[in-house]
């Protein structure tokens, strides 16, 4: 079946979303058909162990504009997005969560902004439904922190839901770092950016695939990708503690000269040794976080391994 090259590519990472895929397809197709440009829906199967892949193949058989990149195992959300943007052929690429928390209807507004000349159109959550207060509070704190300590200003209340022009996608594709924080990278590349507001819905079905441990790793990736501040903390702490200890020496001499018994004994020594030991171990751990990431990069493994790519052969 010959088909014109798509103008719009929709990329959705999928990890065990069998209950959602048909509805995702239905809503994306409705929105994109109304826009009227040739489009493709690139579904990236991130090692699902439910029926997701079979359902994707059914969708592809029904509509060849549905294309599939299927990984050999689970590589993670950010890597799945990366693969999707690698395979997408459109002049603009939209990244959207498969779980319908990002309503496909918003794509129409994004495309409008793109036609006005914006090269990145990110979606800003003006309301989030069905999230725990814990997630809301930690997300708030995290984005405040990361904007404070890094050079990139990630707009508050944005996720990966965004439209990117081909130029931006190509810039992103040139960056092959392993610990990818896509929402940061897509700001880092620059270009003309704007936002559109939307209400983030509840998950259409199923459960979140982001337990706390994954969220923490994601947050660490975000910080270490864009900031050396944690590494510099050891230096700052060293100066502060060295300064305090000079004051301590002077104070002790004065106390002894004036005959005071203060700070005699083991307890004070023990507390100081443990305090410093703790700080030293934390500092080593921070160095380890960066070192491990350097090690990952040096090995130069591919970011992901594709087992099957379906629907991309026509040019
Ligand atoms: N996802 C993925 N690989 C993973 C975890 C999640 O491809 O290892 C996908 C998932 O299928 C969904 C999107 O990433 O389309 C966002 O995940 P989720 O909705 O579970 O995260 P939350 O919205 O709860 O932060
Ligand atoms: Mg979700």
Comma- or semicolon-separated keywords:
single chain; 315 residues; alpha/beta; 2 domains; 8 strands; 50% helix; 17% strand; elongated; binds uridine-5'-diphosphate; binds magnesium ion
Q: Predict the CATH topology of the largest domain.
A: Spore Coat Polysaccharide Biosynthesis Protein SpsA, Chain A
> Strand order across the biggest sheet?
7-5-6-4-1-2-3-8
- Tell me roughly what share of residues is in helical segments: 40-55%
Q: Give, in order, the helices and strands.
A: EHEHEHEHEHEHHEHHHE
* Mean model confidence by pLDDT: 89
Unreliably modeled segments: none
Counted up, domains total 2
Describe this structure in words.
With 315 residues, this protein is α/β, with parallel strands linked by helices. The protein folds into two domains: 8-227 and 302-310, Spore Coat Polysaccharide Biosynthesis Protein SpsA, Chain A (Alpha-Beta Complex), CATH 3.90.550; 229-299. Helix content is 50%, strand content 17%. It contains ten helices and eight strands. It has helices spanning 21-35, 52-62, 77-87, 106-115, 133-149, 166-173, 182-188, 212-226, 229-257, 266-299, and strands at residues 8-14, 39-45, 66-71, 92-95, 120-128, 158-165, 193-200, 306-310. β1, α1 and β2 (39-45) form a beta-alpha-beta unit. α9 (229-257) runs antiparallel to α10 (266-299). The termini are close together. The mean pLDDT is 89. The chain binds uridine-5'-diphosphate (UDP) and magnesium ion (MG). Uridine-5'-diphosphate binds at residues 13-15, 17, 46, 74, 76-77, 80, 97-99, 101, 208-210.
């Amino acid at each position: 079946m010959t088909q014109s090259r798509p103008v719009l590519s929709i990329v959705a990472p999928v990890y065990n979303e069998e209950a959602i895929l048909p509805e995702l397809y239905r809503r994306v197709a409705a929105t994109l058909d109304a826009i009227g440009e040739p489009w493709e829906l690139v579904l990236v199967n991130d090692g699902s162990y439910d029926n997701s892949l079979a359902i994707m193949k059914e969708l592809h058989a029904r509509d060849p504009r549905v294309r599939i990149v299927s990984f050999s195992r689970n590589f993670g959300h950010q890597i799945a997005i990366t693969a999707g943007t690698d395979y997408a052929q459109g002049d603009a690429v939209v990244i959207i969560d498969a779980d319908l928390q990002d309503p496909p209807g918003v794509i129409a507004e994004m495309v409008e902004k793109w036609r006005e000349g914006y090269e990145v159109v990110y979606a800003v959550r003006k309301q989030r439904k069905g999230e725990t207060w814990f997630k809301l509070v930690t997300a708030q704190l995290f984005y405040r922190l990361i904007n404070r300590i890094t050079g990139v200003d990630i707009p508050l209340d944005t996720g990966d839901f965004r439209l990117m022009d081909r130029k931006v996608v190509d810039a992103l594709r040139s960056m092959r770092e392993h610990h990818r924080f896509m929402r940061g990278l897509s700001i880092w590349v620059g270009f003309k950016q704007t936002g559109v507001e939307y209400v983030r819905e509840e998950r259409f079905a199923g459960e979140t695939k982001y337990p706390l441990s994954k969220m923490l790793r994601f947050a660490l990736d975000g910080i270490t990708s864009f900031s050396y501040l944690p590494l510099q903390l050891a230096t700052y702490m060293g100066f502060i503690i060295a300064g305090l200890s000079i004051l301590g020496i002077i104070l002790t001499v004065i106390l002894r000269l004036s005959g005071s018994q203060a700070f005699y004994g083991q307890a004070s020594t023990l507390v100081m040794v443990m305090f410093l030991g703790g700080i030293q171990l934390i500092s080593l751990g921070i160095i380890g976080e960066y070192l491990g990431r350097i090690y990952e990069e040096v090995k130069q493994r591919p970011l992901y391994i594709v087992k099957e790519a379906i629907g991309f052969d026509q040019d």
